[in-house]
Amino acid sequence: MEKKQFQAESKRLLDMMIHSIYSQKEIFLREIISNSSDAIDKIYYHALTNEDIVFNQEDYYIKLVANKEDRTLTIIDTGIGMTKEELETNLGTIAKSGSLAFKNENETKDGHTIIGQFGVGFYSSFMVADVVTVISKALGSNEAYKWESTGAEGYTIEPVEKASIGTEIILKLKENQEDESYDEFLEEYRLKQIVKKYSDFIRYPIKLDVSTRKQIEGDENTFEETIEEQTINSMIPIWRKNKNELTDEDYHNFYAEKHYGFDQPIKYIHTSVDGAIRYQAILYIPESIPFDYYSKEFEKGLELYSNGVLIMNKCAELLPDHFSFVKGMVDSEDLSLNISREILQQDRQLKLIAKNLQKKIKNELQSLQKNDRDKYETFYQSFGRQLKYGVYSDFGANKEDLKDLIMFYSSKEKKSVTLAEYVSRMAEDQKYIYYATGESIERIEKLPQTELVLDKGFEILYLIEDIDEFAIKMLMNYNEKEFKSVSSGDLGFEEDEKQSQTAEAEEENKDLFKEMKDLLAGKVKDVKISKRLKSHPVCLSTDGEVSIEMEKVLAAMPNNQEVKAEKLLEINPNHQVFQSLKNAFTHDKEKLALYTNLLYNQALLIEGLPIQDPVEFTNDMCKVMV
Ligand code: ADP
Ligand code: MG
Fold first, then answer.
1. Ligand 2: centre distance to CA 114 (Å)
2. Model's pTM, two decimal places?
3. Which ligand is closest in space to the CA of residue 34?
4. Which of 88, 211, 328, 455 has the most CB atoms in a 10 Å sphere around its CB?
């Protein structure tokens, strides 16, 4: 028997390996199985180029054998095996990858499916095992060898008997510690679980003897135990299958199996790209909002696979925030991984994939909106708010992408419409896209400010969510049509005749308005004749950037900044109340003060703003009654 030392650097590396490279112990199985898969791939490539080798799919597999008495877990493969020299170079030198060398030497078209590249994965077995034994017989060789190591001490190599070509890796599991148990790696359910998680899509069968207990017929107390060899991985990932071989049900099953959600997804997107970067992806648009979606706890991201092996559960970089509701996975053979194969080396490829996916999602949503409006509305009900946040956030960086996906309730259609639909219906003399803000559709419908715009036959968009007006302000315009609040000072369609009439009335009553303004000092910026009111006596409008709705939203924020809208009190000159104001102005100043306060408070109520002194307000009401 020859006893050899690991090289000095290797010793330290091995120590690091065992203690710090991997985040979880269970990873060792992923690494060993990946190596076996590579070994079978190599035989397959040889078969492609050498007529003497026949590759019968059934002859190639990986098998896991757990022996509870010996506390060993053995991983057997029928792959290419290793010669004595290969055992020494590939396993005796850490960071030496026979697989990388193989890939470089064999420029086969399919060469990219080989997983190994760093030459460290094998040593992860020392995370769970005290002794690692490798028995291997290489293709084309008559001798088999046993390599054995207890870790840092080095390794031994000696000849052994082995009938068939391939490799067996025997892991003598560590003794259980007080806080660490290694027994789990002997349990059938646990092995199945780990394989499902990381190695489900290894292209060769991973077999395991599974025991089942059956009751003997006619005898309640006797059971018969049968052991059956099962293949525990799915082998071909659904995303590598041809789209037309798959049914809706297949996609829905995958969604459920992967626990992406409990709902039925509204849409799935299966895409396979073979360009500058190669990847396959299956994405889902869920139907219902995850319970924590609009909370800090929610984590966005897609599952990331490299060559069918799971690398990351939630890769956040693959999704922009405004599409954070998307679930699914991406598999790419072109990712540069770091040594633990858990983290990406650099994210150039990832950024490219993310950019492509973003475009894809946008287009798919667009087509859903066009071709299946009901479904789109269900989707929008759940995630529309996120899209509007997307328009607003990052200083509007994504607004161009999102402007056609957002919708608002329309006064004309009595349902949600897109901005494109609104603009297509605009009257010839209509300059602006009008909108009104409020707590609910019902409330906006009763807003006096909407009267004149509706009277002109113009459509109004009803903005009822906090984010809405901020998004609209960020958009500024849609296809060169600017947005205009029905409460803004200038509505943009007053006829000349009406203009001069208002100017006249304003001039005539300027002392009255001056006095009212003084009475409301600090509360409103101005009191003026209204051009927009028809039947209502009074309303508020605003000057400047901040609207009343925005003032409310900002006031409700935790770091409330006391931003106030500049309010104007508008009086309808055609309402009888106006006459009463004029009379009071000339004959009874006390009454004028009473009326002014009442009207101001009414205007606040209409806007859904609180009145400062409700008791005084009700007392004032009583004063006009008696
Ligand atoms: P990597 O897989 O990144 O190359 P590993 O440390 O996992 O690194 O494995 C080192 C090398 O050992 C592999 O490249 C391969 O040449 C060889 N090897 C490991 N396991 C097997 C196996 N089951 N059959 C054949 N060769 C193997
Ligand atoms: Mg490996």
1. 9
2. 0.75
3. 2
4. 328
